[in-house]
Design brief:
Elements (H helix, E strand, L loop, with lengths): L2 H12 L10 H6 L4 H24 L9 H23 L1 H7 L10 H9 L6 H31 L1 E2 L2 E2 L14 H26 L26 H53 L1
Antiparallel strand pairs: 1-2
Length: 281
């Protein structure tokens, strides 16, 4: 697998922003009431992500490290403005449907995250495909959620009637709570597949979840609440660090005592020699 293919696979499957990293949840839950909305938001984000990665990678040796984040945001905002104007001119219905969430692409953590984590330290071509892969993975996630919500909530897919005559649509799926239900079902399905695959291989499954600090909204917690395994690992690592710090502190104290002792002995020797000199006189 060459570098370009690896970047595409990484963004679409291995580190999918929606279903693996759980990033960009605001537009994921807000605009996916229909499949076309999810597809439109995903493609708009893909264009911004790819172009911003390109420019940031090209300027990575020019942008000063101290102002890199404001510079990244300025570049991203410029491309969002261009995409917004294009959508307003050529797809006004989609533009009106997505509303303020087009402008909020500027603060999408996926875009700034890829700029900081990858584009700012890698060449232009891999950075382009990194942005493209992440954007396509995000588009896939939004479109899939939009298809399921529209199918269950309205009996249509991309506006075409599919199951409306077979059962009564469940209206909640086209409302905001429906987005949480659909995302939960998809993540549960992915976790079930991961558990089954891990059992066959005899390994440990990598579950998708939002119970770590990265996906937590409890600001008062400040990292005190983790899942059991992470708590054990964190406590064990902290204990090792404390032990190392104590050993280092003891070594420093011992060396200080040795220095003080050496200084005291030298002072005594100097005083003794001075006294001997006086007695000789």
């Amino acid at each position: 697998m060459n570098r370009i293919t690896e970047r595409l696979y990484n963004g679409i499957v291995k580190e999918n922003p929606t279903f693996v990293q759980m990033l960009g949840m605001c537009p994921t839950l807000a605009v996916t009431s229909t499949a076309i909305n999810g597809l439109g938001m995903g493609l708009a984000t893909t264009v911004v992500l790819t172009m911003s990665n390109l420019l940031i990678s090209a300027l990575r040796k020019v942008i000063p490290d101290k102002v890199r984040i404001p510079a990244f945001i300025t570049i991203i905002a410029s491309f969002v403005t261009i995409v917004s104007f294009i959508m307003q001119a050529y797809t006004p219905e989609l533009y009106d449907s997505l509303g303020v969430f087009i402008s909020l692409i500027v603060v999408n953590c996926i875009i700034l995250g890829r700029a900081e984590a990858y584009a700012s330290s890698h060449p232009v071509i891999p950075s382009i495909f990194d942005g493209l892969g992440m954007g396509l993975g995000f588009t896939l996630g939004l479109t899939l959620i939009g298809i399921l919500r529209e199918l269950l909530g309205a009996g249509t897919v991309f506006g075409f009637t599919v199951t409306k005559e077979l059962w009564n649509p469940i209206a909640i799926f086209t409302s905001n709570p429906g987005a949480f239900f659909v995302l939960a079902f998809i993540v549960a399905g992915i976790n079930a597949f991961a558990i089954r695959k891990a059992k066959k291989k005899g390994g440990k499954p990598k579950l998708r979840r939002i119970d770590t600090c990265a996906g937590c909204t409890n600001m008062a917690c400040q990292g005190r609440k983790f899942c059991g395994e992470e708590t054990e690992g964190t406590v064990s690592a902290a204990a090792d660090q404390i032990k190392k710090a104590e050993v280092k502190k003891a070594e420093v104290k011992k060396s200080e005592n040795e220095v003080k002792s050496a200084d005291g002995n030298a002072a005594k020797a100097a005083a003794g020699s001075a006294k001997s000199g006086k007695d000789g006189e």
